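User: Could you go from structure to sequence for me? I need the amino acid at each position, not a summary. Structure tokens:
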């Protein structure tokens, strides 16, 4: 065997463990310009899918934190003798949840806080 066939064989072996869709993109002839376009489209769609999954995971994390805080409140508030302590804790927790929701990018909280900020600044609410 000569060196070129060995290099070609090693290149094919390198791509053989990839999923079929990715290896199909890599085997498109580069002279036609389809290879770079196909790879770019694949990367773009994968990147969009990844961003969507990240957003969903961050929102899920927020909902889990809110649910745990609710359970802790139920057990804690039932043992408090006055109503003022749970009210103060609840106001503080709402502020914390709003900040956490904005940090994690929860769409509903982001929209709500943007409307509140616009109204606070004297701008119109849409």
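Assistant: Here is the amino acid at each position, in order:
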């Amino acid at each position: 065997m000569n060196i070129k066939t060995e290099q070609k064989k090693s290149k094919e072996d390198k791509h053989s463990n990839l999923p079929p869709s990715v290896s199909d993109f890599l085997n498109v002839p580069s002279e036609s310009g389809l290879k770079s376009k196909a790879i770019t489209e694949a990367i773009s769609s994968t990147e969009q899918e990844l961003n969507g999954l990240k957003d969903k995971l961050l929102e899920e994390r927020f909902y889990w934190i809110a649910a745990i805080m609710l359970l802790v409140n139920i057990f804690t508030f039932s043992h408090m003798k006055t109503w003022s302590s749970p009210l103060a804790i609840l106001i503080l927790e709402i502020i914390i949840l709003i900040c956490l929701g904005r940090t994690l990018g929860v769409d509903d909280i982001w929209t709500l806080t943007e409307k509140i900020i616009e109204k606070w600044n004297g701008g119109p609410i849409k």
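One structural detail worth keeping in mind: The two ends are 72 Å apart (CA to CA).
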